[in-house]
Amino acid sequence: MASYHVENFGCRATQSDGAAIERQLRERGLGRADGPQSADVVVLNTCTVTASADQDVRAAIRRIHRKNPECKILLTGCYAQRAPEELAALPGVSWVVGNSHKQHVGDVVCGTAGFVPPREISWAESTTIAPMIVGDIFAHTELMAAPVFDGGAEKTRPNLKVQDGCDNRCSFCIIPSVRGASRSLPRGEVLAQVGALVDAGFREVVISGINLGRWGRDCEKPDRFVNLVRAILERTELEKLRISSVEPMDWTEDLIELAAGCQRIAQHAHVPMQSGSDRVLRAMHRKYRPWHYAEKIRRIRDAMPGAAIGADVMVGFPGESEADFQETRRMIEALPLTYLHVFTYSSRPGTRSAAMPNQVPVQVARDRNRILRELAAEKKRGFMESFVGRELPAITLRAGDEESTEALTDNYLKIGLSGRHGANQWVRAAVRQVSGEKLVGSVL
Predict the structure, then answer these.
(1) 30: domain range?
(2) What is the C-alpha to C-alpha distance for residues 398 and 425, in angstroms, rounded to an integer?
(3) Same domain membership, residue 434 and residue 347
């Protein structure tokens, strides 16, 4: 039996795509290898959101080709869609399949009889570059969806992608060009998949997407994201639903009220911010202003006093002045955010910002990144300390050892629980103290 290994780079959406690719390969009779060093076929499911993401992929190709020169390497994902010729020319690469046709990865690997690439794609045969199958991503209507799990082999907290692509055109972002237009998994399919996960014994499910709050807008009968959330609660027995990142304008009053009033929805909101400077947000082509964002965060905090509220923030965007950065820093200080994902701007070929003047020096951007990460650590520490002496619901992520079991609270805090407990169990945790990046407590 031929064996495969799938390696994913980047976001949860990419991991979901990778899980669906694994399913394709298993259905065609391939077995999972212990790792790339022993696989007959290695699929690298790539990311291209930053230059360092591209570098990670190229480094992986070199490493795998050096250690397992006989294996065939197939590249798919966002980098493969953006720059197929660049990847096809690298030593060791056997095929390049863009996001436009990743639903055919199993056919390409197995040489399925009757598989003929559509006319609009490039299927290059050459002695110098690998065959490529890449088409118009905006003609792509497929949405590959398979759950991604936490907890390693024990599998907990499945993450289900229900939306892909993006109709926004932020000036710094390459994602629409490599993932295409926003498209939604139909409500019936979402409910069927959530129901199957519940039947399999899972206690918490995370729903995610590239632009999750836009779910339903492209359906034959247009729908709204809040209606999907309601349907999951009403038509499945899921114990806990966690909502992944949702843009500020899509945290509607209906969604906030639903999340605040239902114990089956995790007390957690991730709301991308990017900048606290009005001038920078306009240059980014973001659809909100700083005061809109601040008002939304305060509304979420008022409705959910104990919720984790996180944000994505970018530093070093072209033309970001010291005054712009200080506006961002002050805004973060003033808002009840509990954690940040801080990114340093990375110029992406094909985006509008790549041609903008006044690119910020690398060291300046790195210093700004450090300042915000330090601020985020202070805010997270204060949030964690506010729960010492209190009780929180938490789900165990994996079976513990004799001394401790790792769990995640309803409001998105890691906690070490004394003693051994099984995986995928909801417990009531008494928080005793903060230790480093996590809480420490015991099961009541």
Answers:
(1) 3-137
(2) 9
(3) no
- In a domain? residue 312: yes
Judge contact between 266 and 242, C-beta under 8 A: yes
- Bridge partners, 114 (sequence order): none
Classify residue 345: in a domain, yes or no: yes
Are 235 and 260 members of one domain? yes
- Cβ-based neighbours of 368, under 8 Å, separated by 6 or more: 315, 316, 320, 325, 344
Q: pTM here?
A: 0.92
Both 129 and 103 in one domain: the answer is yes
Q: How many domains does the chain have?
A: 3
Which candidate, 25, 201, 192, places its Cα nearest to that of 112? 25
**For residue 287, what are the β-bridge partners?**
none
- Tell me: the pLDDT tens digits for 322-337? 999 999 999 999 999 9
Q: What number of CA atoms fall less than 13 Å from residue 361's CA on the CB side?
A: 4
Note whether 410 and 276 are same-domain residues: no
18 and 162 fall within a common domain: no
pLDDT digits (tens, 9 = 90+) for 163-222: 999 999 999 999 999 999 999 999 999 999 999 999 999 999 999 999 999 999 999 899
Token duo for residue 190: 């979402």
Is 143 part of a structural domain of the chain? Answer: no
DSSP string, 100-166: GGGGGHHHHHHT-TT----TTSB----SSS--EEB--GGG--------EEESGGG-EEEEEEEEE--
Own/partner long-range contacts of 165-169 (Cβ < 8 Å, ≥24 apart): 165/210, 165/211, 166/210, 166/211, 166/214, 167/211, 167/214, 167/217, 168/211, 168/285, 168/287, 169/285
Q: Are residues 290 and 165 in the same domain?
A: yes
Tokens of 120: 């609009």
